[in-house]
């Protein structure tokens, strides 16, 4: 009997269950704050919070409209950083909630 690596079994099970998108969404939300701290620093990161990811749109709560405009101008940079570790573009656009 041959041994099968756990990574292969897990990947196969995730695909079979059809939960890859949900897992990617959870990972994006988990990694959001550390990535934003890395890009913008603690002072900005304290003023934003990821709410949820639905249909490729990441909803982000912001404390002010000025901050959301500043972040909107950096949207491509944020998207590139969030999608860096995925083979597909998990986050396609950002929506800022004030």
Characterise this structure.
The structure is a single chain. Helix content is 56%, strand content 18%. It is built from 5 helices and 3 strands, in the order αααββααβ. The longest helix has 21 residues, at 20-40.
Strand and helix map with partners:
Layout: H1 6-17, H2 20-40, H3 42-45, E1 48-54, E2 57-62, H4 65-73, H5 75-83, E3 93-97
Parallel strand pairs: 2-3
Antiparallel strand pairs: 1-2
Helix pairs in contact: 2-5
Poorly predicted residue ranges: none
Q: Helical amount among residues, as a percent range?
A: 55-70%
Major sheet attributes: 3 strands, mixed
Structural class, from helix and strand content?
A: alpha+beta
Shape label: elongated
Summarize the helix and strand pattern as letters. Answer: HHHEEHHE
Question: What is the strand arrangement across the widest sheet?
Answer: 1-2-3
Number of helices: 5
Query: Radius of gyration in whole Å, from Cα?
Result: 16 Å
Q: Report the average pLDDT across residues.
A: 91
Distance between the termini: 58 Å
How many E-type strands?
3
- β content, as a range? 15-25%
